[in-house]
Amino acid sequence: MTTLSELASSRELLSNLMARELKGKYKRSTLGWMWSLLNPLATMAIFTVVFRLFLRINPPVGDPSGLTNFALFLLCGLLPWNLLSAGMVEGAGALVNNAAVIKKVWFPRETIVLANVAALNVTFLIELAVLSVALLTVGNMVLPWLPVVLVLVLLLSLFVLGLALALSVLNVYFRDVQYLLGIVMQLWFYATPIIYPVSLVQSADFGRWERLVLTVYNLNPMVHFVGAFRDCFYNLRFPPASAWAVMVGVTAVSLAIGAFTFRKFTPRLAEEL
Amino acid sequence: MAAAVVLDHVSKRYRLYHERNDSLKSSFLNFRRGRYEEHWAVRDLSLEIETGSTFGIIGENGSGKSTLLKCMARILTPDAGTIQITGKVSALLELGAGFSPELTGRDNVYLNGAILGLPRSVLDKKLDEIVAFSGLESFIDIPVKNYSSGMFVRLGFAVAINVDPDVLLVDEVLAVGDEEFQRRCEQKFADLRASGRTIVIVSHAMGTMRNICDQLAWLNQGRLRDVGEPGNVVDEYVEEVHAAAGPPPDPEGGARWGSGEISIDAVELVDNAGGVRETTRTGDSVRLRLHYTAHKRVERPVFGVGVHRLDGIHITGPNTKQADLRLDAIDGSGHVDLVLDRLLLLPGTYDLSAAAYDWTLQHAYDHRHRFQRFDVERGEPTEEHGLVSLGGRWDTSRIGTSQKEKGSGPPPEVQNESAI
Fold it and tell me: In this structure, are residues A107 and A93 in contact, taking their beta carbons and an 8 Å threshold?
């Protein structure tokens, strides 16, 4: 069983695995790293055309920033979502894709999942930097809020890490997990206010089910994560205490479940792969 | 001497799935993940391996050797019992297992080194040594996907062996690369042994195991069968495995042909006292007795025997015609003996063929190909390499003993003296 000291001494391995992830990504493509920026920009362009121009969804007015811009509003939610989505998909494949080395060499298995999430964070931070520049050019003074954003990034990453740890081992035992994930992620995407403002759900008429629907909707941790990112970037205000409470809470639960599941299933990992 | 590795009642169980169905659906429907049988690959095994020793593990395929090694390497977790290893462990199970094809050789040295637990500072210092050892200086900066399989393995070996482990676990990977590389590997192993590292090695190469191991364990169906001095354990192992193998198959038609006027009934190994033997020792005086029945009068028959190694190599095949023996005619049953004053086959298992032909050697009356098996055990001469002894003896009487003589005296001479 991996002890914490072993995990600490595998920092070298972690940085090497991370470097492998980053170097291997976009290798042999002409645009290379540009892709990690082009992807969210393309998604943004498509969603903007479809939802802003065709479906006429109005972006909310930033409070107190006064900003009104659908593309930027979208990106504030899309980028954190992409971290979650990629983290879960890559997490699910992390152990299965490294079966060869897991079967032949011992090292703390957590490091593979950890390296995946860490490598995604590098891309995420670059994307957020670009978003910040874009926001600054339209006059949104995001700089004072960046320290808060970093705390949010850390919380979200730990939340994703917990899920990725659990998914990575579960996928070894039940390969359906990765396929099921495709459906779950779609559902989760639309259950999160990324392409629409959360007010759209709040103002909709659900009749006598209204309380229930809103309660269930708010159970989605990503509602609060996306909301918090938007508060910092788009609205330029401090996320509400309730959001912090939910985010810290779900992160703790996710990490606990992830660590427990991983510990429980790793002893027989090499033979099940 | 302290023990580097202590195995205490270690057991490891595998699940053999009848119908491997790792889907959620099947587990919901069956309330479990497929039906499986349990197989104990290692059962209640206790061992102590001394620090600084070279410890060998032998056994047939499926005896649990590799499982045990993987348990020591922490890749597998035992279901019962404990394994305590003092010091840093490195396992040579599959070379280059952690290589990433898109990365260069250099990047992979760092990655693989990190997987094996080497800090970057150490790798920086060792990089040149590792690259030099692999002999891939001019290829180190190209992606390893462009390497040949030999280059791949050489780099993997170079990294793994340069980890400087306290305990090195090796699974049948000694035979990599060309001769030059193998020589370097052997040298490296010798260095590791000399510097007091503990080496645990699993192999089927009995000769090597006999030579390099200080202690040998014999695993049989997951249990420890024997542990002790390598020579004795190898001998016991070889004896039992060959006895268990039984006589080789003698399918009609395939391994036997001929017109049938004479039939070869049996071949026996007969010792000096006239007793029939199953096994013999190198250097023994024995007769190969060939029993035949001539169903009618046959003129000028030729009898012959053949000795083959189990992999089919034909070691020898004397016959009566080539010995200038003209047998006028035979009728009825009888036997002919090939008298061996000194059997010069080295320890191992051999197959026997026997045949009766006509004088032209073109027509077989009866040819039974590799139809009987016998074992040769260690005897005198005590050689181990190759198939046969030439029966030579060493003459060392003229080796110089003082520094002065060593420089000026004639080189030592080796004389071969045929015993036959």
Answer: no
Query: How far is Cα A273 from Cα B13, in angstroms, rounded to an integer?
Result: 16
Residue with token string 């009848």: B18
CB contact (8 A) between residue A176 and residue B116: no
Chain B interface test: which of A105, A110, A111, A269 (most B C-beta within 10 Å): A105
| ipTM value greater than 0.90 | no
The answer to whether the CB atoms of A105 and B97 lie below 8 A apart is: yes
Per-residue pLDDT of A110-155, as tens digits, reads 999 999 999 999 999 999 999 999 999 999 999 999 999 999 999 9
HSE-CB at A193 with a 13 A cutoff on CA atoms is 26
Contact criterion met (CB < 8 Å) for B75 and A16: no
User: Distance (Å, rounded) from C-alpha B127 to C-alpha B5?
Assistant: 30
Identify which of A21, A124, A9, A109 has the alpha carbon closest to the alpha carbon of residue A76. A124
Kindly report, residue by residue over B254-277, the tens digit of the pLDDT: 467 788 889 898 888 898 888 888
Closest CA to B345 of B310, B371, B320: B310
| Confidence category of residue A6, pLDDT binned at 50, 70, 90 | low
Q: Indicate the pLDDT class of residue B385, thresholds 50, 70 and 90.
A: confident
CA–CA gap between residue B56 and residue B198 (Å, rounded):
11
